[in-house]
Amino acid sequence: MSCDANIMAGLLVSLLVCVLCSCFVATAKLPNIVFVLVDDWGFADVGFRNPAISSPNFDHLAKTGLVLNRHYVFKYCSPSRASFLTGRWPHHAHQWNLPQSDMAGTNLNMTMIPAKLKAAKYSTHMVGKWHQGFFDPRYLPINRGFDTSSGFLGGGEDHMTQEAECAIDYWKNDAPDPRNGTYDAYNYGDDLTDIMNNHNVNDPLFIYLPLHNVHAPLQAPDEWLNIYSVNSTCENRRTYQAMVSVADNVTGYLVQLLKKKGMWDNTIIIISADNGGAACGGSNYPLKGCKGSFFEGGVRALAFVNGGLLPESRRGESTDGFIHIADWYTTFCKLAGVDPDDSGTGKFPVDGLDVWPIITGENEKTQHEEIVLGYNFDNVYPSQGAIIVNNYKLVVGLQGHGCDSLMWSALDYPCSYGPEGPDCDPYCLYDIVNDPTEKKDLSKENPDMLKKLVERYNSYSKEPRDMQDQGYHSEDDIPKDPNACKYMADNGGYWRPWKNI
Ligand SMILES: *[C@@H]1O[C@H](CO)[C@@H](O)[C@H](O)[C@H]1NC(C)=O
Ligand SMILES: *[C@@H]1O[C@H](CO)[C@@H](O)[C@H](O)[C@H]1NC(C)=O
Ligand SMILES: *[C@@H]1O[C@H](CO)[C@@H](O)[C@H](O)[C@H]1NC(C)=O
Ligand SMILES: *[C@@H]1O[C@H](CO)[C@@H](O)[C@H](O)[C@H]1NC(C)=O
Protein backbone atom coordinates (compact mmCIF):
# COMPACT_ATOMS: atom_id res chain seq x y z
CA MET A 1 0.00 0.00 0.00
CA SER A 2 1.14 3.51 -0.68
CA CYS A 3 1.49 5.95 2.09
CA ASP A 4 -1.74 7.68 1.03
CA ALA A 5 -3.65 4.40 1.02
CA ASN A 6 -2.39 3.72 4.53
CA ILE A 7 -3.67 7.06 5.71
CA MET A 8 -6.99 6.42 4.00
CA ALA A 9 -7.29 2.99 5.64
CA GLY A 10 -6.44 4.57 8.99
CA LEU A 11 -9.09 7.22 8.49
CA LEU A 12 -11.65 4.61 7.57
CA VAL A 13 -10.87 2.63 10.72
CA SER A 14 -11.17 5.71 12.91
CA LEU A 15 -14.39 6.63 11.17
CA LEU A 16 -15.76 3.17 11.80
CA VAL A 17 -14.68 3.29 15.46
CA CYS A 18 -16.33 6.68 15.80
CA VAL A 19 -19.57 5.42 14.32
CA LEU A 20 -19.54 2.37 16.59
CA CYS A 21 -18.75 4.51 19.61
CA SER A 22 -21.53 6.98 18.97
CA CYS A 23 -23.87 4.07 18.33
CA PHE A 24 -22.85 2.63 21.66
CA VAL A 25 -23.28 5.94 23.44
CA ALA A 26 -26.70 6.42 21.89
CA THR A 27 -28.00 3.02 22.98
CA ALA A 28 -26.21 2.62 26.33
CA LYS A 29 -28.84 3.33 28.93
CA LEU A 30 -28.09 5.25 32.05
CA PRO A 31 -28.03 2.91 35.05
CA ASN A 32 -30.99 2.50 37.38
CA ILE A 33 -30.00 3.54 40.87
CA VAL A 34 -31.61 2.21 44.04
CA PHE A 35 -30.62 3.30 47.53
CA VAL A 36 -32.14 1.49 50.52
CA LEU A 37 -31.62 2.87 54.03
CA VAL A 38 -32.53 0.65 56.95
CA ASP A 39 -33.20 2.77 60.03
CA ASP A 40 -31.17 2.13 63.22
CA TRP A 41 -29.88 -1.16 61.87
CA GLY A 42 -27.13 -2.77 63.93
CA PHE A 43 -23.80 -3.86 62.42
CA ALA A 44 -24.54 -7.48 63.42
CA ASP A 45 -28.29 -7.46 62.75
CA VAL A 46 -28.27 -9.45 59.54
CA GLY A 47 -28.27 -13.18 58.84
CA PHE A 48 -24.87 -13.30 57.16
CA ARG A 49 -23.30 -11.93 60.33
CA ASN A 50 -25.65 -13.35 62.92
CA PRO A 51 -27.58 -16.63 62.63
CA ALA A 52 -30.21 -15.28 65.06
CA ILE A 53 -31.59 -13.06 62.27
CA SER A 54 -33.63 -14.34 59.33
CA SER A 55 -32.83 -12.15 56.32
CA PRO A 56 -32.58 -14.38 53.23
CA ASN A 57 -32.74 -11.51 50.72
CA PHE A 58 -30.07 -9.38 52.41
CA ASP A 59 -27.87 -12.45 52.84
CA HIS A 60 -28.15 -13.36 49.18
CA LEU A 61 -27.53 -9.77 48.03
CA ALA A 62 -24.46 -9.53 50.26
CA LYS A 63 -23.08 -12.95 49.39
CA THR A 64 -23.44 -12.39 45.65
CA GLY A 65 -22.54 -8.72 45.96
CA LEU A 66 -19.89 -6.51 47.52
CA VAL A 67 -19.86 -5.88 51.28
CA LEU A 68 -18.71 -2.39 52.22
CA ASN A 69 -16.63 -2.90 55.34
CA ARG A 70 -16.10 0.78 55.94
CA HIS A 71 -19.24 2.69 55.07
CA TYR A 72 -19.46 5.71 57.38
CA VAL A 73 -22.57 7.65 58.30
CA PHE A 74 -23.63 10.15 60.97
CA LYS A 75 -24.50 8.90 64.45
CA TYR A 76 -28.24 9.48 63.98
CA CYS A 77 -31.01 9.75 61.43
CA SER A 78 -31.68 13.16 59.92
CA PRO A 79 -28.06 14.26 59.33
CA SER A 80 -27.11 10.95 57.65
CA ARG A 81 -29.98 11.52 55.23
CA ALA A 82 -29.06 15.18 54.69
CA SER A 83 -25.50 14.09 53.99
CA PHE A 84 -26.68 11.49 51.47
CA LEU A 85 -29.16 13.83 49.75
CA THR A 86 -26.82 16.85 49.52
CA GLY A 87 -23.39 15.20 49.23
CA ARG A 88 -21.98 17.24 52.14
CA TRP A 89 -20.34 16.33 55.44
CA PRO A 90 -23.02 16.37 58.10
CA HIS A 91 -21.85 19.66 59.62
CA HIS A 92 -21.92 21.26 56.16
CA ALA A 93 -25.59 20.28 55.77
CA HIS A 94 -26.91 19.97 59.31
CA GLN A 95 -26.41 17.78 62.34
CA TRP A 96 -29.80 18.15 63.95
CA ASN A 97 -32.52 15.57 64.33
CA LEU A 98 -35.65 17.47 63.44
CA PRO A 99 -38.63 17.06 65.80
CA GLN A 100 -42.10 17.25 64.21
CA SER A 101 -42.76 20.88 65.10
CA ASP A 102 -39.44 22.29 63.82
CA MET A 103 -39.68 25.35 61.64
CA ALA A 104 -36.58 24.33 59.69
CA GLY A 105 -35.26 21.88 57.14
CA THR A 106 -32.27 21.06 54.95
CA ASN A 107 -30.89 24.17 53.22
CA LEU A 108 -33.16 24.91 50.26
CA ASN A 109 -30.23 26.25 48.26
CA MET A 110 -28.63 22.82 48.17
CA THR A 111 -29.56 20.73 45.14
CA MET A 112 -30.57 17.31 46.37
CA ILE A 113 -29.48 14.19 44.48
CA PRO A 114 -32.93 13.49 42.90
CA ALA A 115 -32.91 17.01 41.40
CA LYS A 116 -29.41 16.37 40.03
CA LEU A 117 -30.59 13.12 38.45
CA LYS A 118 -33.61 14.89 36.94
CA ALA A 119 -31.10 16.77 34.77
CA ALA A 120 -30.31 13.39 33.17
CA LYS A 121 -34.03 12.65 32.76
CA TYR A 122 -34.26 10.17 35.59
CA SER A 123 -37.62 9.22 36.96
CA THR A 124 -37.18 9.80 40.72
CA HIS A 125 -39.15 8.31 43.60
CA MET A 126 -38.93 8.09 47.33
CA VAL A 127 -40.80 5.76 49.66
CA GLY A 128 -40.41 5.95 53.44
CA LYS A 129 -39.04 8.38 55.98
CA TRP A 130 -38.16 11.92 54.95
CA HIS A 131 -36.89 13.78 58.06
CA GLN A 132 -35.57 16.78 56.08
CA GLY A 133 -38.15 19.30 57.26
CA PHE A 134 -41.68 20.03 56.09
CA PHE A 135 -42.85 23.14 57.95
CA ASP A 136 -42.46 25.09 54.71
CA PRO A 137 -43.92 23.26 51.67
CA ARG A 138 -40.70 24.01 49.78
CA TYR A 139 -39.00 21.38 51.99
CA LEU A 140 -41.26 18.55 50.77
CA PRO A 141 -39.70 15.68 48.77
CA ILE A 142 -41.64 16.56 45.59
CA ASN A 143 -40.24 20.08 45.79
CA ARG A 144 -36.66 18.80 46.13
CA GLY A 145 -36.46 16.65 43.05
CA PHE A 146 -38.68 13.63 43.60
CA ASP A 147 -41.40 12.96 41.02
CA THR A 148 -43.35 11.04 43.65
CA SER A 149 -43.05 10.49 47.38
CA SER A 150 -44.95 8.45 49.92
CA GLY A 151 -44.31 7.73 53.55
CA PHE A 152 -43.89 10.11 56.45
CA LEU A 153 -42.34 13.51 56.87
CA GLY A 154 -40.89 13.36 60.40
CA GLY A 155 -38.37 11.12 62.12
CA GLY A 156 -40.43 8.36 63.70
CA GLU A 157 -43.97 7.31 64.44
CA ASP A 158 -46.17 4.42 65.39
CA HIS A 159 -45.65 1.74 62.73
CA MET A 160 -49.25 0.57 62.98
CA THR A 161 -51.23 3.83 63.30
CA GLN A 162 -48.73 6.37 61.89
CA GLU A 163 -49.35 8.58 64.90
CA ALA A 164 -46.47 10.95 65.67
CA GLU A 165 -46.88 12.97 68.86
CA CYS A 166 -50.28 14.56 68.29
CA ALA A 167 -51.29 13.82 64.69
CA ILE A 168 -50.99 11.26 61.91
CA ASP A 169 -47.83 11.59 59.83
CA TYR A 170 -48.63 10.00 56.49
CA TRP A 171 -48.07 11.87 53.28
CA LYS A 172 -48.22 11.16 49.56
CA ASN A 173 -46.80 13.66 47.05
CA ASP A 174 -48.63 16.84 48.07
CA ALA A 175 -51.40 15.69 50.39
CA PRO A 176 -52.10 13.44 53.40
CA ASP A 177 -52.26 9.74 52.59
CA PRO A 178 -55.48 8.22 53.97
CA ARG A 179 -54.00 4.70 54.16
CA ASN A 180 -53.01 5.17 57.82
CA GLY A 181 -53.78 2.29 60.12
CA THR A 182 -51.70 -0.37 58.29
CA TYR A 183 -48.17 -1.53 59.22
CA ASP A 184 -46.15 1.03 57.27
CA ALA A 185 -43.73 -1.35 55.56
CA TYR A 186 -46.70 -3.18 53.99
CA ASN A 187 -47.89 0.02 52.37
CA TYR A 188 -44.36 0.71 51.16
CA GLY A 189 -44.46 -2.58 49.29
CA ASP A 190 -47.66 -1.41 47.54
CA ASP A 191 -46.04 1.92 46.71
CA LEU A 192 -43.10 0.13 45.10
CA THR A 193 -45.53 -1.94 43.03
CA ASP A 194 -47.19 1.27 41.78
CA ILE A 195 -43.87 2.92 40.95
CA MET A 196 -42.69 -0.09 38.97
CA ASN A 197 -46.05 -0.55 37.18
CA ASN A 198 -46.06 3.08 36.09
CA HIS A 199 -42.42 3.19 35.11
CA ASN A 200 -41.46 3.53 31.45
CA VAL A 201 -38.44 1.22 31.04
CA ASN A 202 -36.88 3.63 28.56
CA ASP A 203 -36.29 6.13 31.35
CA PRO A 204 -33.52 5.69 33.88
CA LEU A 205 -34.92 5.13 37.38
CA PHE A 206 -33.87 6.38 40.81
CA ILE A 207 -35.57 4.93 43.86
CA TYR A 208 -34.72 6.10 47.37
CA LEU A 209 -36.19 3.69 49.92
CA PRO A 210 -35.53 4.94 53.46
CA LEU A 211 -37.47 2.29 55.38
CA HIS A 212 -38.94 3.04 58.81
CA ASN A 213 -37.87 -0.41 60.04
CA VAL A 214 -36.07 -1.09 62.35
CA HIS A 215 -36.53 2.23 64.16
CA ALA A 216 -38.40 2.47 67.48
CA PRO A 217 -41.14 1.98 68.52
CA LEU A 218 -40.38 -1.72 68.24
CA GLN A 219 -43.47 -3.16 66.55
CA ALA A 220 -43.96 -6.02 64.11
CA PRO A 221 -47.01 -7.85 62.77
CA ASP A 222 -47.67 -11.27 64.31
CA GLU A 223 -46.91 -13.15 61.10
CA TRP A 224 -43.34 -11.86 61.33
CA LEU A 225 -42.99 -12.16 65.10
CA ASN A 226 -44.01 -15.78 64.80
CA ILE A 227 -40.97 -16.78 62.80
CA TYR A 228 -38.97 -16.26 66.02
CA SER A 229 -39.61 -18.20 69.21
CA VAL A 230 -41.04 -16.29 72.15
CA ASN A 231 -38.20 -14.85 74.21
CA SER A 232 -39.16 -14.49 77.84
CA THR A 233 -35.92 -12.71 78.74
CA CYS A 234 -35.84 -10.27 75.84
CA GLU A 235 -39.07 -9.76 73.93
CA ASN A 236 -37.69 -6.47 72.53
CA ARG A 237 -35.01 -8.41 70.75
CA ARG A 238 -37.55 -10.73 69.19
CA THR A 239 -39.59 -7.78 67.89
CA TYR A 240 -36.45 -6.17 66.53
CA GLN A 241 -35.47 -9.41 64.78
CA ALA A 242 -38.93 -9.55 63.17
CA MET A 243 -38.57 -5.93 62.03
CA VAL A 244 -35.29 -6.74 60.28
CA SER A 245 -37.05 -9.64 58.53
CA VAL A 246 -39.74 -7.26 57.26
CA ALA A 247 -37.09 -4.83 55.93
CA ASP A 248 -35.46 -7.82 54.24
CA ASN A 249 -38.77 -8.85 52.67
CA VAL A 250 -39.58 -5.39 51.25
CA THR A 251 -36.07 -5.01 49.83
CA GLY A 252 -36.23 -8.48 48.29
CA TYR A 253 -39.62 -7.62 46.82
CA LEU A 254 -38.19 -4.53 45.12
CA VAL A 255 -35.38 -6.64 43.66
CA GLN A 256 -38.00 -9.06 42.28
CA LEU A 257 -39.91 -6.18 40.67
CA LEU A 258 -36.75 -4.87 39.00
CA LYS A 259 -35.95 -8.35 37.69
CA LYS A 260 -39.49 -8.92 36.39
CA LYS A 261 -39.30 -5.69 34.47
CA GLY A 262 -35.95 -6.65 32.96
CA MET A 263 -34.19 -3.77 34.69
CA TRP A 264 -31.92 -5.60 37.12
CA ASP A 265 -28.98 -6.04 34.73
CA ASN A 266 -28.67 -2.28 34.43
CA THR A 267 -29.19 -1.54 38.12
CA ILE A 268 -26.94 -0.70 41.02
CA ILE A 269 -28.47 -1.12 44.47
CA ILE A 270 -26.90 0.05 47.72
CA ILE A 271 -28.28 -1.13 51.04
CA SER A 272 -27.08 0.59 54.21
CA ALA A 273 -27.95 1.46 57.77
CA ASP A 274 -28.40 5.18 58.47
CA ASN A 275 -26.50 4.76 61.77
CA GLY A 276 -25.69 1.99 64.21
CA GLY A 277 -28.21 -0.12 66.08
CA ALA A 278 -29.98 1.60 68.94
CA ALA A 279 -30.15 0.71 72.60
CA CYS A 280 -32.53 -2.09 73.51
CA GLY A 281 -32.92 -4.03 70.33
CA GLY A 282 -29.94 -3.82 68.02
CA SER A 283 -26.49 -5.36 68.15
CA ASN A 284 -23.37 -3.70 66.81
CA TYR A 285 -21.09 -6.53 67.83
CA PRO A 286 -18.09 -6.50 67.76
CA LEU A 287 -17.96 -2.70 67.43
CA LYS A 288 -18.09 -0.36 70.39
CA GLY A 289 -21.06 1.91 71.12
CA CYS A 290 -24.38 2.43 69.37
CA LYS A 291 -26.60 5.00 67.66
CA GLY A 292 -25.86 8.38 69.20
CA SER A 293 -22.11 8.00 69.62
CA PHE A 294 -19.14 8.54 67.33
CA PHE A 295 -17.62 5.21 68.29
CA GLU A 296 -17.63 2.73 65.41
CA GLY A 297 -20.89 1.15 66.57
CA GLY A 298 -22.64 4.48 65.94
CA VAL A 299 -21.11 5.47 62.61
CA ARG A 300 -19.73 2.45 60.77
CA ALA A 301 -22.80 1.17 58.99
CA LEU A 302 -23.76 -2.29 57.83
CA ALA A 303 -23.76 -1.87 54.03
CA PHE A 304 -23.49 -3.81 50.77
CA VAL A 305 -23.91 -3.32 47.04
CA ASN A 306 -25.44 -5.50 44.33
CA GLY A 307 -27.24 -5.20 40.98
CA GLY A 308 -26.31 -6.25 37.47
CA LEU A 309 -23.87 -3.38 37.12
CA LEU A 310 -21.56 -4.76 39.76
CA PRO A 311 -18.62 -6.39 37.96
CA GLU A 312 -18.39 -10.20 38.20
CA SER A 313 -14.96 -9.88 39.85
CA ARG A 314 -16.51 -8.05 42.82
CA ARG A 315 -19.22 -10.59 43.59
CA GLY A 316 -18.81 -12.40 46.87
CA GLU A 317 -16.12 -9.92 47.87
CA SER A 318 -15.81 -7.13 50.38
CA THR A 319 -13.88 -3.89 50.31
CA ASP A 320 -12.00 -2.02 53.02
CA GLY A 321 -12.11 1.22 51.03
CA PHE A 322 -13.33 4.13 53.17
CA ILE A 323 -16.67 5.45 51.94
CA HIS A 324 -18.85 8.14 53.49
CA ILE A 325 -22.58 8.33 52.81
CA ALA A 326 -21.99 11.77 51.20
CA ASP A 327 -19.95 10.05 48.47
CA TRP A 328 -23.01 8.58 46.76
CA TYR A 329 -24.07 12.03 45.60
CA THR A 330 -20.94 12.50 43.52
CA THR A 331 -20.88 8.84 42.50
CA PHE A 332 -24.49 8.88 41.26
CA CYS A 333 -23.91 12.16 39.39
CA LYS A 334 -20.92 10.60 37.63
CA LEU A 335 -22.91 7.47 36.77
CA ALA A 336 -25.66 9.67 35.32
CA GLY A 337 -23.23 11.94 33.45
CA VAL A 338 -24.27 14.98 35.48
CA ASP A 339 -21.88 17.55 36.95
CA PRO A 340 -21.89 17.05 40.75
CA ASP A 341 -20.87 20.66 41.37
CA ASP A 342 -23.35 22.49 43.58
CA SER A 343 -21.38 25.46 44.82
CA GLY A 344 -22.93 28.86 45.37
CA THR A 345 -23.39 31.60 47.92
CA GLY A 346 -24.38 30.69 51.46
CA LYS A 347 -23.57 26.99 51.16
CA PHE A 348 -20.57 24.72 51.35
CA PRO A 349 -19.53 22.94 48.16
CA VAL A 350 -20.16 19.20 47.81
CA ASP A 351 -17.73 17.07 49.87
CA GLY A 352 -18.49 13.64 48.37
CA LEU A 353 -16.04 11.75 46.18
CA ASP A 354 -16.79 9.52 43.22
CA VAL A 355 -16.22 6.11 44.84
CA TRP A 356 -17.20 4.07 41.79
CA PRO A 357 -13.55 2.91 41.38
CA ILE A 358 -13.78 1.37 44.89
CA ILE A 359 -17.00 -0.43 43.94
CA THR A 360 -15.61 -1.81 40.68
CA GLY A 361 -12.25 -2.61 42.26
CA GLU A 362 -10.49 -0.49 39.67
CA ASN A 363 -8.87 1.59 42.41
CA GLU A 364 -9.68 0.97 46.05
CA LYS A 365 -7.51 3.89 47.09
CA THR A 366 -9.96 6.39 45.56
CA GLN A 367 -11.00 7.43 49.02
CA HIS A 368 -10.88 10.41 51.34
CA GLU A 369 -7.71 10.98 53.27
CA GLU A 370 -9.93 12.70 55.82
CA ILE A 371 -13.56 12.07 56.78
CA VAL A 372 -15.40 14.51 59.01
CA LEU A 373 -17.88 12.31 60.85
CA GLY A 374 -19.17 15.21 62.90
CA TYR A 375 -17.93 18.62 63.96
CA ASN A 376 -19.25 20.84 66.69
CA PHE A 377 -17.87 24.35 66.75
CA ASP A 378 -19.37 25.05 70.15
CA ASN A 379 -18.37 21.77 71.78
CA VAL A 380 -21.78 21.18 73.24
CA TYR A 381 -22.06 18.06 75.41
CA PRO A 382 -22.53 15.24 74.52
CA SER A 383 -20.73 13.90 71.48
CA GLN A 384 -18.95 16.85 70.04
CA GLY A 385 -17.43 15.25 67.00
CA ALA A 386 -15.04 12.88 65.30
CA ILE A 387 -12.66 12.86 62.37
CA ILE A 388 -10.87 10.08 60.51
CA VAL A 389 -7.45 10.76 58.98
CA ASN A 390 -6.07 7.76 57.13
CA ASN A 391 -6.12 4.88 59.64
CA TYR A 392 -6.67 7.04 62.70
CA LYS A 393 -9.81 8.34 64.28
CA LEU A 394 -10.13 11.16 66.79
CA VAL A 395 -13.24 11.09 68.97
CA VAL A 396 -13.89 14.42 70.66
CA GLY A 397 -15.75 14.70 73.95
CA LEU A 398 -17.92 12.52 76.15
CA GLN A 399 -20.10 10.24 74.09
CA GLY A 400 -22.56 9.49 76.86
CA HIS A 401 -23.51 6.55 78.97
CA GLY A 402 -24.90 3.05 78.74
CA CYS A 403 -25.05 1.86 75.21
CA ASP A 404 -23.14 4.85 73.83
CA SER A 405 -19.81 3.51 75.03
CA LEU A 406 -20.82 -0.11 75.47
CA MET A 407 -18.38 -2.85 74.62
CA TRP A 408 -20.64 -5.47 73.06
CA SER A 409 -19.83 -8.73 74.76
CA ALA A 410 -21.89 -11.07 72.61
CA LEU A 411 -23.06 -11.31 69.03
CA ASP A 412 -26.68 -11.45 70.04
CA TYR A 413 -27.69 -8.49 72.15
CA PRO A 414 -28.31 -9.80 75.64
CA CYS A 415 -30.88 -7.18 76.68
CA SER A 416 -28.69 -5.87 79.43
CA TYR A 417 -25.66 -3.72 78.85
CA GLY A 418 -22.20 -5.17 78.91
CA PRO A 419 -19.38 -3.28 80.59
CA GLU A 420 -19.28 0.40 79.78
CA GLY A 421 -16.05 1.27 78.01
CA PRO A 422 -13.95 4.33 78.86
CA ASP A 423 -15.31 7.54 77.36
CA CYS A 424 -13.43 10.41 75.67
CA ASP A 425 -12.58 13.45 77.78
CA PRO A 426 -11.50 15.41 75.91
CA TYR A 427 -10.07 13.08 73.26
CA CYS A 428 -9.70 9.46 72.25
CA LEU A 429 -7.42 8.37 69.45
CA TYR A 430 -7.83 5.00 67.78
CA ASP A 431 -6.11 3.11 65.01
CA ILE A 432 -9.40 1.87 63.55
CA VAL A 433 -7.76 -0.36 60.97
CA ASN A 434 -5.69 -2.38 63.44
CA ASP A 435 -8.04 -1.89 66.39
CA PRO A 436 -11.54 -1.80 64.85
CA THR A 437 -13.24 -2.37 68.20
CA GLU A 438 -11.58 0.74 69.70
CA LYS A 439 -10.18 -1.02 72.72
CA LYS A 440 -6.92 0.90 72.86
CA ASP A 441 -6.99 4.68 73.23
CA LEU A 442 -3.67 5.92 71.83
CA SER A 443 -4.05 9.57 72.86
CA LYS A 444 -1.35 9.33 75.57
CA GLU A 445 0.89 6.91 73.76
CA ASN A 446 0.98 8.71 70.44
CA PRO A 447 0.92 12.47 71.20
CA ASP A 448 2.22 13.39 67.75
CA MET A 449 -0.65 11.68 65.99
CA LEU A 450 -3.08 13.15 68.53
CA LYS A 451 -1.73 16.62 67.83
CA LYS A 452 -2.05 16.11 64.09
CA LEU A 453 -5.68 15.00 64.27
CA VAL A 454 -6.65 17.69 66.79
CA GLU A 455 -5.19 20.26 64.42
CA ARG A 456 -7.13 18.81 61.53
CA TYR A 457 -10.30 18.81 63.60
CA ASN A 458 -9.76 22.37 64.81
CA SER A 459 -9.08 23.61 61.28
CA TYR A 460 -12.85 23.49 60.73
CA SER A 461 -13.27 26.29 63.26
CA LYS A 462 -12.05 28.62 60.50
CA GLU A 463 -15.17 27.93 58.46
CA PRO A 464 -17.97 30.49 58.74
CA ARG A 465 -20.00 29.54 61.79
CA ASP A 466 -23.24 30.85 60.35
CA MET A 467 -22.97 28.33 57.52
CA GLN A 468 -22.15 25.26 59.61
CA ASP A 469 -25.34 23.59 60.75
CA GLN A 470 -27.12 26.44 59.00
CA GLY A 471 -26.11 28.69 61.86
CA TYR A 472 -27.93 26.86 64.66
CA HIS A 473 -25.57 26.23 67.54
CA SER A 474 -27.54 23.34 68.94
CA GLU A 475 -30.82 21.59 68.38
CA ASP A 476 -32.36 23.73 71.10
CA ASP A 477 -31.76 26.82 68.95
CA ILE A 478 -33.96 25.61 66.11
CA PRO A 479 -37.28 27.41 66.28
CA LYS A 480 -40.21 25.14 67.12
CA ASP A 481 -43.82 26.06 66.80
CA PRO A 482 -45.76 25.62 70.06
CA ASN A 483 -49.00 25.75 68.08
CA ALA A 484 -48.06 23.06 65.55
CA CYS A 485 -50.26 20.39 67.14
CA LYS A 486 -53.23 22.72 67.18
CA TYR A 487 -52.78 23.50 63.46
CA MET A 488 -52.78 19.81 62.67
CA ALA A 489 -55.87 19.13 64.79
CA ASP A 490 -57.68 22.01 63.09
CA ASN A 491 -56.67 20.81 59.63
CA GLY A 492 -57.72 17.18 59.42
CA GLY A 493 -55.46 15.53 62.01
CA TYR A 494 -52.54 14.86 59.65
CA TRP A 495 -49.10 16.43 59.82
CA ARG A 496 -48.67 18.80 56.90
CA PRO A 497 -46.65 21.92 56.04
CA TRP A 498 -48.14 24.73 58.09
CA LYS A 499 -46.10 27.80 57.16
CA ASN A 500 -48.85 29.09 54.90
CA ILE A 501 -51.85 28.02 56.97
C1 LIG B 1 -42.05 -11.90 51.59
O1 LIG B 1 -42.84 -12.54 52.55
C2 LIG B 1 -43.94 -13.28 52.00
C3 LIG B 1 -44.77 -13.76 53.17
O2 LIG B 1 -43.99 -14.55 54.01
C4 LIG B 1 -43.39 -14.40 51.14
O3 LIG B 1 -44.45 -15.11 50.55
C5 LIG B 1 -42.53 -13.79 50.04
O4 LIG B 1 -41.92 -14.81 49.28
C6 LIG B 1 -41.44 -12.93 50.64
N1 LIG B 1 -40.75 -12.25 49.56
C7 LIG B 1 -39.44 -12.15 49.51
C8 LIG B 1 -38.87 -11.47 48.32
O5 LIG B 1 -38.71 -12.59 50.38
C1 LIG C 1 -29.79 31.01 49.39
O1 LIG C 1 -29.25 31.78 48.35
C2 LIG C 1 -29.75 33.11 48.30
C3 LIG C 1 -29.25 33.78 47.03
O2 LIG C 1 -27.88 33.51 46.86
C4 LIG C 1 -29.34 33.84 49.57
O3 LIG C 1 -29.86 35.12 49.56
C5 LIG C 1 -29.90 33.07 50.76
O4 LIG C 1 -29.46 33.66 51.97
C6 LIG C 1 -29.45 31.63 50.74
N1 LIG C 1 -30.12 30.88 51.79
C7 LIG C 1 -29.49 30.08 52.64
C8 LIG C 1 -30.31 29.37 53.64
O5 LIG C 1 -28.28 29.96 52.62
C1 LIG D 1 -33.49 -14.26 73.97
O1 LIG D 1 -32.70 -13.12 73.65
C2 LIG D 1 -31.38 -13.16 74.14
C3 LIG D 1 -30.74 -11.86 73.79
O2 LIG D 1 -30.77 -11.63 72.43
C4 LIG D 1 -30.66 -14.34 73.52
O3 LIG D 1 -29.37 -14.42 74.05
C5 LIG D 1 -31.42 -15.62 73.81
O4 LIG D 1 -30.82 -16.69 73.12
C6 LIG D 1 -32.86 -15.49 73.33
N1 LIG D 1 -33.63 -16.65 73.74
C7 LIG D 1 -34.41 -17.29 72.87
C8 LIG D 1 -35.23 -18.42 73.44
O5 LIG D 1 -34.50 -16.99 71.69
C1 LIG E 1 -56.34 8.07 59.82
O1 LIG E 1 -56.11 9.34 60.39
C2 LIG E 1 -57.26 10.18 60.43
C3 LIG E 1 -56.81 11.56 60.90
O2 LIG E 1 -56.35 11.51 62.21
C4 LIG E 1 -58.31 9.54 61.32
O3 LIG E 1 -59.47 10.32 61.29
C5 LIG E 1 -58.63 8.14 60.81
O4 LIG E 1 -59.50 7.50 61.70
C6 LIG E 1 -57.35 7.32 60.67
N1 LIG E 1 -57.63 6.05 60.03
C7 LIG E 1 -57.34 4.89 60.61
C8 LIG E 1 -57.71 3.66 59.83
O5 LIG E 1 -56.79 4.80 61.69
Automatic annotation (TrEMBL):
UniProt superkingdom: Eukaryota
SUPFAM superfamilies attached to this UniProt entry: Alkaline phosphatase-like
Presence of keyword Repeat: no
Stretches for region Disordered: 460-480
Residues covered by the Sulfatase N-terminal domain: 31-338
GO molecular function: metal ion binding; sulfuric ester hydrolase activity
Co-factor(s): Ca(2+)
Signal peptide: 1-28
Keyword field: Calcium, Glycoprotein, Metal-binding, Signal
Membership in a protein family: Belongs to the sulfatase family.
Name listed for the protein in its UniProt record: Sulfatase N-terminal domain-containing protein
